[in-house]
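Ticket #4471: structure output looks truncated?

Reporter: J.K.
Steps to reproduce: submitted the chain below (714 residues) through the standard prediction queue, then opened the result file.
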Amino acid sequence: MEIGIRILIVFLVSQVVHIGAQKEGEEGCVPGFQVKEYQVEYNGGFQKDHPLTQVFFDDCAGNEGLAFEVSHPDFQVDEEMNLVARRDVMDSGTVMFIHGVNEQADDMAQVDIVGAPPRSPQTLREILGLGQIQPYRSKRALFAPRMHVNENMEPPFPKVIGTVMSPGMENDHIFHMTGSGADQDPKGVFTINRVTGEVSVSQELDREAISSYTLEVSVTDLSGKLVEGPVALLVDVNDQNDNRPIFKETRYAGEVLEGSPTGTVVMTMTAEDADDPRLQNAVLRYNIVRQSPDKPSPNMFYINPESGNIVTVISPTLLDRETLPTTQYELEIVAQDMKGRDVGLTGTATATITITDKNDHAPEFTHSLFQANVDEGSRGVAVNLTVDDRDDPATGAWRAIYSIINGDPTQNFEIQTNPDNNEGMLSVVKPLDYESVVFHTLLIKVENEDPLVPDVGYGSSSTATVHITVLDVNEGPVFFPDPLQVTKMENIPLGSFVALLNATDPDVLQSQSIRFAVLRDPANWLSVNPVRGTVNTSANLDRESPYVHDNKYTAIFMATDNGSRPASGTGTLVIHLEDYNDNAPYVHPSVVRVCEDTKDSVVIVGGRDRDIHPNAGPFKIELGKQPGLEKTWKVSRVNNTHAQIMLLQSMKRANYQLPLVVTDSGLPPLSNSTEIKVQVCTCKKNRMDCSSAGSVCSNLMMLLALVLLSLFCL
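Returned output as attached by the reporter:
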């Protein structure tokens, strides 16, 4: 029992120190029991439900969720904070402890029962009033009660926050404390009196940096031998309201569709508070303190004080983007801790809410009738159609889509939207003909990209009529057919008829004459009669000319009327040229190489002709008519276009001119006597050496030159 009394005294001292620390660190209301000690007279026992005393507890926030626990299981604290017996009690003991706790406060009070006999049996757990909070400890265990210290305590330091007690403490025993906050980083925050076990804090603490410390306490003798422990010592840093609510952003943006029902959630704004979330220090409430502009109502929006949801309050009819003074409203939002009480700290942010547009206005033409004049034969924009739309520009509710719904069966017109001003650009895409139709009447409809809201429709103002008047223009003559294609044999006589040009004047309501002229004749082969339009040759037509491509020769002619402003048109004449056998064939290549050894002396040559079938191949290639050639050379047919030349006997390494005759298959056939140069070379090991092969003719000429030079010198 004496050990229990000693533990009880140490515990009460730690609580008194803890209360004293709270009073030093706070001003005004101190959460917890306002009276820490109570006395009750013992008169032989206590009757059921009879109040012993009333306790005074205030968490400084309304005592919401407050619960009490009494160390004696037969007693409780009722709703009016009266300590009452659950049943008739005789064995109350001499002391009880009351534990009061909620989110805002956690405190203990002592009730002394004067004149009561000691309670037996009585556990240390009940003496200390710890209920389910502290585990059971044996009588001789080292005891380290949980300690509390306020953050932001003011000097001087150190300050005692509690006492650790050892029931078996002797004169040669000392206390030791280790762990983070003692001999480990952050070092020196807490110290322990080695003799008395008093624990002190040595500096100002910040709960938001470290909210609790876990230390270990042990008892040793003077030699350092462990006597008791180690046991855990928990130190909680009590929160003070020293952190303002902070919004993540200084400015927030949201939007709400015009006409939205009252109560529509626009956006959510939440702040954070670094204080203890279990206490009201971090319980936030939100409020709108300013709305700009404040028309048509200063309370168009409401913010849920707990969730931070901003909702509309204004009626849907007044939430009309087209009638509101602005499409953006700015709200100043304040977040306040302590559940919004005046003593709470505040943080501020701004919300910008945009009233977005819905398609509740149909586009309307500014005029019911538009008119324009268009030159016949022209293309391009004829008229710009203008519309009004009260919806938000740059949205699908404002952007217009135009369509031609009547009056354009031949699709001569097209209408597109100008993205800069939303006008409809009516264009002519197929040239109009004055002689066919002078007036065109079109019916145009305009719609939005986005569909209209259900209660709005397109009216008569969403359609308009366009009158197009076609103006007569002197049009140039038109060739038919164009191009005009004819077939002629090349080399026909000069002045031969080639073609008759046909051009008509589209201006049938006017009597105009037409004159023809050559506009482009690359080879200058043609001429044209300016009145009749007959085309004749003025030079030979040559199919092999570089101006002929794929056997076709192209010329361009111009026809001009005699209007007040003469107009011209062009037409194309394409002459397909048939081949005439007017080009002799030739041999290719013109230079060949053979080996001086007759067994390897074979080369292949071919015939070529600028004419085409049937005036080209098959070719006949044979030796020239010079006598003796057949003894040295042999020409034999390989196929329709190539022949083989063979050296029949060994010859000296030199260059030789070999006469050949090549004949085509035309009617009549053409022959060509030609020569090819044959280089006779030395061939060894698949290599051909022609380096010393000089022309026989060249050697003779050089010898003759030397003889003449000698005579000249003499």
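Triage note (M.O.): checked the attachment and the full token line is present. The longest helix spans residues 2-25.
Status: closed, working as intended.
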